Amino acid sequence: MKIIAALHAPALGDVLRGSAFRDDVAAGGATRLQVNVDDDAVAPAMRFGPGVQITAVVSVWTPGSPDAVVDVVRRLDGSADAWLVEEREPLAPPAVADGARADTLANVAFLRRPDTLSPEAWRTDWLDRHTQVAIDTQGTFGYVQNPVLEALTADAPAVAGIVEELFPMAAMTDHHAFYGSGGDEAEFQRRFAVLMESCERFGAAQGLDLVPTSRYTFTLT
Length: 221
Hints:
Helix content is 29%, strand content 28%. The protein is an alpha+beta fold and 221 residues long. The chain has one domain (2-219): 2-Layer Sandwich (Alpha-Beta Plaits). The longest helix has 19 residues, at 119-137. The chain is globular.
């Protein structure tokens, strides 16, 4: 199973990438860890959302109890929110050495389902229709979807899905790099319009938290 936690405390990057945190997560049975941090490397990138500011995102893969993972994360940040998710990789991120920063702007978005759509209709529209639109209209080279199965913390926001999109670092300040439009302004405008229309259809044009991050992965066994 995969667990995703959103942390809100500042300056946790070094701790989350440290051996002590990895040991604590591994002690609960986890086999893999991913740390995404909103840090200086992505400072120029856009960030927004209606929720409490998210400073880091931790993903853990484990065959064991999710409670053990949540306990470890909440010892660092008592306000952290966590969800059990189902992972899909329509565009698998390239492999990176353990502990190395991936050469990417990794945008993590926390999606909310509008009341106008049932959970089933929302999931189908996001996973079966919007996926290819998002890949075709942006300059991404990694796209990971995480439909939420259940909240693991009592006060977690009503997040329906979490998506991670990997962009070239230039995408922080260059809209052509973000949308993959190759310097063609008309193509950028076309891609932007198509993407926004698609996002509007399943409620992702509003009510989402967007967190730009640096991405690190670790094998724990």
